[in-house]
């Protein structure tokens, strides 16, 4: 019997180690469609200085509950080119015996991200069954003195251990879910106690509050009222929110309202988009469920979320790096597709799109806000200026933002004038594939107040018009994903 168990173990190990790498059909197809312009190259992703800009972040959440395996995807985080990654602390995983902390699993994640040139920021969240407190999303936030004291001891030990290695501390995840949303005072008390504990160890710590599910203004206002009454507004540096909407663009007005609300309490508190992404299949649970998403619409959605956040000049975190294996389902939000062994199968088009957007819209540029334009299109187009450090508008993000991103891979040609740019010799970038094209210009296309395009391809995902001198081209051609097509090793009988 022992010999049989050993043979079975060896078989499973061999299967796991020899898992075939698959090519991505969707990524291959993305590289066969074209906006109909003359291609002149592909961008060379620039990852220099990625860790010095807190604009782009990726989600590495749920490792506290083992819904993913960090060792399986660590290298992909560095390759993605973002500067930061969001992780969760996992009180229940760190303290399995009262007063005894085991941070070994968390060390591997914090140090692993640092080794990839990515700065982790940590969400301190969820309870511990040792103290009769739930450890999952939406669990009731504890209110009793004993559990709160145990929590603060855990927070103190965590901050002591990772001071200088963790960039920022976020307090709880989506505290307005379920019954918690009816008790803003419970979260306000937890927020104050946790923030003061963090500051007792690190007075200069950057602290993020709320981690809101969507953008509930009334709940936020109620918590801020309590903080103001207690004189504790100065404990926060950021307020984070998770704007899950089928059309990512419709969140803009609510984000603007949230910014105005927070500014009325303390203008020094900034906003950040702390978690948001899109499924790649139809799902029956979690955010954005009951919609027929595909890997094409996912890529468009993720890039539109990034474009909206860039426009609003707020830090942005894409959820998530890999598919997550929840107890009831395999969630499909990952930039990387994984199997039930938590291994990476292939890079989705969204992975390449996020990598290219993070590279193009790096520390060198900032948002110039919405630009005026004229167009013959019947659809509403969003146009955002890309400005350099001197304030010159060197590029523009352009996309249809009026509908939910679709699965179609087709562009609409429109004559267009973009006003107020400093672009003289433009190139056209399709960020999902990173391909660069020569746009068609009308005669006398450049004047002192704008640039004119003839039949500019626009679709429901951002494209980028950029001054050619600002774009470094690569000698490579887009990877079509021609890897092994799998074998019987993928089949478990």
CATH level 1 class label of the largest domain = Alpha Beta
Distance between the termini: 21 Å
In percent terms, what proportion of residues is strand? 15-25%
Largest sheet features: 8 strands, antiparallel
Count of DSSP-assigned helices: 11
Mean pLDDT: 91
CATH topology of the largest domain: TIM Barrel
The CATH architecture name of the largest domain reads: Alpha-Beta Barrel
Read across the widest sheet, the strand sequence of neighbours is 14-16-17-23-19-20-1-24
The general outline is globular
Low-confidence stretches: 1-20
Oligomeric description of these chains: single chain
Number of strands: 24
Helical content band: 25-40%
Key attributes of the depicted protein:
Immunoglobulin-like, 493 residues, alpha/beta, TIM Barrel, 11 helices
Show the helix and strand layout.
Blueprint lengths: L1 H16 L7 H6 L7 E6 L12 E4 L10 H11 L3 E5 L2 H4 L9 H12 L3 E6 L20 H18 L6 E3 L12 H18 L5 E7 L3 H14 L7 E5 L9 H14 L4 E7 L18 H18 L3 E3 L5 E2 L4 E2 L4 E3 L5 E4 L1 H12 L5 E5 L2 E3 L5 E7 L5 E8 L11 E8 L6 E5 L4 E4 L2 E7 L2 E9 L4 E5 L5 E2 L19
Parallel strand pairs: 2-3, 2-9, 3-4, 4-5, 5-6, 6-7, 7-8, 8-9
Antiparallel strand pairs: 1-20, 1-24, 10-11, 12-13, 14-16, 15-18, 16-17, 17-23, 18-22, 19-20, 19-23, 21-22
């Amino acid at each position: 019997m022992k010999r049989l168990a050993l043979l079975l173990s060896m078989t499973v190990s061999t299967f796991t180690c020899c898992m075939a790498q698959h090519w991505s059909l969707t990524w291959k197809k993305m590289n066969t469609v074209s906006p109909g312009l003359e291609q002149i190259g592909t961008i060379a992703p620039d990852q220099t200085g990625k860790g010095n800009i807190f604009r782009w972040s990726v989600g590495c959440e749920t490792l506290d509950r083992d819904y993913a395996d960090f060792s399986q995807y660590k290298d992909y985080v560095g390759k993605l080119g973002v500067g930061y990654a969001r992780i969760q602390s996992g009180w229940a995983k760190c303290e399995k015996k009262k007063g005894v902390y085991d941070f070994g699993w968390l060390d591997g994640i914090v140090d692993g991200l640092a080794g990839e040139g990515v700065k982790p920021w940590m969400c301190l969240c969820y309870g511990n069954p040792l103290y009769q407190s739930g450890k999952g999303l939406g669990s009731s936030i504890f209110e009793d003195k004993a559990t709160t004291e145990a929590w603060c001891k855990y927070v103190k030990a965590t901050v002591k251990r990772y001071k200088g290695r963790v960039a920022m501390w976020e307090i709880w995840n989506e505290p307005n879910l379920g019954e918690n949303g009816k008790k803003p005072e419970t979260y306000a008390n937890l927020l104050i106690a946790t923030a003061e504990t963090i500051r007792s160890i690190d007075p200069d710590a950057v602290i993020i509050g709320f981690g809101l599910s969507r953008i509930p203004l009334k709940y936020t206002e109620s918590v801020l009222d309590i903080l103001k009454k207690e004189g504790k507004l100065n404990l926060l540096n950021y307020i984070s929110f998770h704007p899950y909407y089928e059309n990512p663009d419709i969140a803009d007005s609510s984000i603007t309202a949230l910014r105005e609300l927070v500014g009325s309490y303390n203008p020094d508190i900034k906003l950040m988009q702390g978690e948001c992404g899109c499924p790649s299949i139809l799902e029956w649970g979690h955010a954005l469920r009951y919609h027929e998403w595909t890997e094409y619409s996912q890529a468009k959605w993720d890039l539109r979320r990034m474009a909206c956040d860039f426009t609003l000049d707020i830090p942005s975190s894409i959820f998530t790096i890999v598919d997550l294996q929840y107890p009831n389902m395999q969630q499909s939000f990952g930039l990387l597709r994984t199997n039930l062994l938590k291994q990476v199968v292939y890079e989705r088009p969204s992975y390449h799109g996020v990598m290219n957007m993070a590279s193009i819209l790096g520390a060198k540029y900032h948002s110039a806000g919405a630009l005026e334009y004229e167009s013959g299109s019947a659809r509403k187009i969003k146009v955002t200026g890309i400005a350099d450090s001197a304030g010159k508008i060197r590029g523009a993000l352009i996309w249809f933002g009026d509908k939910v991103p679709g699965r179609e891979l087709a562009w609409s040609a429109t004559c267009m004038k973009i006003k107020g740019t400093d672009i003289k010799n433009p190139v056209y970038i399709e960020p999902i594939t990173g391909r660069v094209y020569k746009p068609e210009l009308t005669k006398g296309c450049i004047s002192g107040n704008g640039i004119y395009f003839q039949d500019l391809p626009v679709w429901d995902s951002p494209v980028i018009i950029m001054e050619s001198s600002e774009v470094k081209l690569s000698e490579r051609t887009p990877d079509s994903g021609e890897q092994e097509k799998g074998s019987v090793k993928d089949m478990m009988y």
